Amino acid sequence: MFLDLQLFPEDKIALIDDKKEPISFKKLIEKSEDFYSKIRKRTLVFILADNSIESFVAYYSCLSNGIVPLLLNYKIDADLLTKLITKYEPECLFFPKTRLEELSYDPLLEYEDFVLVKTGFNETPLNSQLALLLPTSGSTGSPKLVRHSLGNLEFSATTVGQVFSIGPDDVAIAFLPMYYTMGLSVINSHLKAGAKVVLTNRSLTDREFWNTMREEKVTSFTGVPYSFEILDKLRFSRMQLPDLKIITQGGGKLKEDLFEKFALLAEEKNVKFIPTYGQTEGSARMAFLSPEKVLEKKGSIGKAIPSGYLSVINDNGDELKESGVSVEGEMIYKGPNVTMGYAENIEDLLKGDENFGFLKTGDIVRRDEEGYFFIIGRKKRFLKIFGLRVSLDEIEGLVKSRFHVECVCSGSDDQLIIAVNDPENHQKVKEYVSSKTGLFHGVIQVVYQAEFKRNETGKIILNDF
């Protein structure tokens, strides 16, 4: 059984969500068996998930019974969802009842807030190792998916538990979406250790979020860079959270001033502050910085997780193994949490492991004389905004298709910049991209670019933008 939940006391609370109705480990297993009873075979299921017990039950049932789920944002744009359904032909969908009329399916199984339906597609051919699919870009509904094995997820859950010293008395709050690799890692790693997880769809600016933190005696908080910007504005330093023991950060590089501020705050409050690094392709966490090193190695992602290996390669692909010296290049990772590869169509779901535990991260790093890694840039064209990876190529495609304009995207981890050769429709472009991606309109800036420089083949020269 996935995460070995049957090993824990039956009456111990496993999950509680915004409804404030806790569920025990025994009941969680029983509900997952009920979900499986409606499918009874290995097949592909799309789960439009929020952070609720119902969503997790569907996910857990799939992983425990050989069903392969694709986790998606429960608010995913209907057009993007239709494209994914057409491309991958899932046999079943699990989604909120509020979308039942919009998606027009007959219910197979009804929960309080969710429904399981049949799509009419036949059973999907799947590789025997395939256990989970996650989007490479949760914001744009990209058809490119990451293929996970059960071993990837089990290793990651166990190792994260070791890194954070998670035990059965711990309580984690999971507000990062479970369809996002970091959010899923929080849930899996704590349940694997027999800890309780508080699932919530509430934002950090909601007073009830902090009431829940205190009421449930939360010991572990995991956020992305944007989370820490909000915490700073909320004057987190003044909050009384006596049970909090650990604060972890992932999902992109934290601004240096916030990194130092939270490192000092953690020291003052006797709380562990642990920055981490990961990617969907590495089942979330791949590196962490020990809490005793956060002030000495400000801005570092630390070193590899247990049983993982980090190194640096040059432009020729040669590994730079010199110790005791500072080197720069693309970071590579090796470990059992490296996923099987990508899927871009239904045929790819039959593929086996193509990575064999090796991953080129696409991040340019500096490794210092003591072996600590610092990210200094990205090789690939993507941003991480609010911890979610956003493909610049995909955004450009959306804008070009809708408005029939030339478009080039750039930006940083807190802003997406869209340049178009249309001087008038900036607000419409912003609203369209916001609606399609779910990104807050305030982080999207549309600018006018009268002319884009091109190379000899007519391709826009991105470096000149």
Task: Describe the fold and architecture.
This is AMP-binding protein. It comes from Shivajiella indica. Keywords: Ligase. With 465 residues, this protein is an alpha/beta fold. It has 2 domains: 376 residues, Rossmann fold (3-Layer(aba) Sandwich); 83 residues, ANL, C-terminal domain (GMP Synthetase, Chain A, domain 3, 2-Layer Sandwich), CATH 3.30.300. It contains 11 helices and 26 strands. The strands form 6 sheets. Strands 2-1-11-10-12-13-14-15-16 form a 9-stranded mixed beta sheet. Strands 4-3-5-7-6 form a 5-stranded mixed beta sheet, covered by helices on one side. Strands 17-18-20-21 form a 4-stranded antiparallel beta sheet, with no helix packed on it. Helix 1 crosses helix 2 and helix 5 packs across helix 6.
